[in-house]
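Hi U.,

Before I forget, here's the chain from the pilot set. I'm dumping it here mostly so it's searchable later in email.
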Amino acid sequence: MITRYMESQFVDDFFNEGKLRLSSFKKFRNNPDEQGDVAEGRANMKIATPNGNHTILATNGQEAYVLCGGTVENKNMEASFKTADGFRIINTLAFADAISRYIPGFIGGVEGLCSYRDSLLINDYDENSIVSPDQFTSPEEWAGVLQHLHP
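Structure:
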């Protein structure tokens, strides 16, 4: 279950009129009303492998639509999102499917947990779990495997 925290008027707009505001990481970084994460959708990685070192700066989903919610429902989360209202999403895939039908040109989606860290740098060296980019035929294939190791 995910809780989408938002102002009462937007919850009412969603249930009464079917309106839902979606944004992008790019807009989140520039909107003072959002959580104010200037690095939203970005990651830095330094990976040491037996074949050499790899440094990666990733910027994801800058023009993609994003809907954030919390996996924890309590007063602290309400305070963090600066609201005491919201709604629960019980089946996130069905919810995303229903919303995506109203997005012109929609071609696919991704869902997952967001991992907030004190540092954006992921610094890894573990000979047993090294996933070197040169072991894959494409950057996308490598990134998919890496994502499962470093959620």
